[in-house]
Input
Amino acid sequence: MKIKLSFQILCFVLFFTVFMQCDNPTQSNSYVSELQTIPLYGGWNWISFNVENQDMSTANVFDTIKDNLLVIVDDKNNTEAFYSDSSGWMGGNFQIDIRTYYNVQMLNSDTLRLWGIPVNISTFSVELDSGFNYIGFPLQDELNVDIALSLLPNLSNEDILKQQTLFTQFTSEFGWLGSLENMRPGHGYLLRVSSPQTLTYPILD
Output
């Protein structure tokens, strides 16, 4: 009887320890969960995410900045959401998609913080239409544009990549040329391609 009871207690302790490590990201290792921080400025910000939380609703993802938030715009799906102290979250409480970017208008500067699992780049892809596409940057580190977009199969001289304030255009002779040299985590991008194709990012050691 004592042996059986001790075994049950041991199982409970092990279960509770594992549960707490998963539920509290500050106690888990970086492989399990990481904190993404995105500095936001008063006015408009193009942002994207490189971690995935169990709850990717706008109410959860943007909870840390709601006091300074004016509106979240999902340009790809033509939806928006905003928060007020009196009414809470209004508009579309949509799910955040790591493949796209979001246009966030802030009243004052603030920092968005989100715990989540780092995006698995080996399974990440975005189907691009001809013309402009809203894309996110799910990598953990910044990457030169030539390397980041090196797996696009059908680049042409008319292809363009835009950040909020920077710009670069592809040339068959010299690659990408312009003020936008690196793609960075947390930023959102507009990518114009001349033909439909699939965007994947390289896996770097």
Observations:
- Confidence is low (pLDDT under 50) at residues 1-30.
